[in-house]
Amino acid sequence: MFVSDYKKSTIALTDEQRDILAGHQGEMVAKCLQTMIDIGETMGATCMVPITFGHITGTFALSSFHGYYELLDRLVDAGCKVKVPTTTNPHPGREFSFRNRRLYRPQIHHEHCLRKLGVIQNYSCAAYYEENMPPLGAIGGCGESSVVVYMNSVFGARTNIWGVLTDFYQSISGFTPEFGLLLDENRFGTVLFDVSDLKDPDPDALGLYVGKMAVDRTPVITHHPFDKYELKHLLSATNSSGACRIVHVEGVTPEAPDLKTALGGKEPVETFKVTQADLDGMRASREVQDQTDVIVYGCPQLTLHEVLEMAPSFIGKFVEKRTIFSMMPRDFELLKRYDEYEQLQLAGVEFVPACPLTYLTSRDATLKNVLTDSGKLHYYLAGAQFATLDDTLRVAGVKK
Amino acid sequence: MPTVIGKGGVLVEGHVKAPVLISDAGFNGVAAWTKDDNFKPGHQAVCNDWQHPWNGTDLAGKILAFPAEVGSTHAPLPYIDLCKNQNGPAAVIVARPDPLVAIGIFISKEWYGPSIPLLQFPTDELAMHVKDGDVIEILEDGTIQIA
To answer: What are the beta bridge partners of residue A296?
Structure first.
């Protein structure tokens, strides 16, 4: 008979934490901390450690769910505020359609709540390019899986993955349970991906492949000079298909100066020699691509830099399929200062400074078949087919 | 005497008897439970994840066994409501527990009251003893037995 060796741990509290639990900062702050302690003990934590940054995942107010939003109201009513700089995920795109105005009807109230709780109103899942750039080794409590994997991998900051409400509970109490990716021994890679035969790998296709093969294990990728924008795509796709919360790239990410260090001095448990055929296998067939109704870019959201890089493909032409750029709100405002903004609009491009996964979750038949160069959007959005950037430009009719 | 399958690690205690569903694929609560169809009355717990073998199956009242919760940090959103309203799964058995699967159940228990058992137990071990639809019983101490 199988008997699980799983056991809950016991968290030893500091005087400051005991004071919080005793209600010295209010009943709600005590309850936030107590919930995090209880969850921490199920995860094997033995202490609570202070955090210096956070990121909120639950910025969408879905009218059909109530539990989360009622509890957020309780925090607001009690006057709770976040104690550490805490950024926010994107707007859901309530204005995108009639359907969304109904689906996200409580959104206006929800954003009032977020403001009252004191979070940074950036509304972007790519928060790591602006207000939220923690130093190496900093400890945080982040929701939003693509933020978690970027913080851990690119900054070498430390956060476990947290879901709705617990991100708030940590930012409000100021503490997170110490387990998982907060500990050195859990950050080493275990699976090696050799990309030396790839000339110019599509980061999303590579991410989907790596995640699919790594599944829950920590990947180490041999050197390729990915820039910070390519890393955004690579990491979010890896996390989507493989639940990988940290990914090392040899000579690129801070905890992988070399393969030996990234692997913690051990041999990889498995090694994959990645081929271009592996990456091509991630793409939808040409027949499927040609059935596209709408082409969507920006999951995680597009930066100004990325839009300006893509712009020449569109300028002076007109798209043959509906084409949407989902941009970070801050960078969308910056884009308006550039000639490319008007030129892209003349090319038929639409800008939606919101989350494509949410503004397309409920959509009419004219938007049924989505084509995207985002591994993450492909993985999460039903009906979203994956293609490389070049594929999408061909389908958009702006590149032969 | 009921046939004891094994003893799971108890993350959230509880006693329940219900049909089991076992999958060797990770479960994504957001992909499963936040689609248009889930907003219809009585459809809140229907799995609408086109990438999961349970796609189209109503998971209400079932004991769900899967290797790990995968994907989105919005996973607690449906879990909280399904536990609070007691119209979701009867229990969850997961091989590799992580915060995403625990949070929604914990928050419903600590902030609203209702909860469901959450156990750690290997999916493949469970599949050696029972198949989909078999009724099993989970006891407070984590014992899993054929009802």
So the answer is: A324, A372
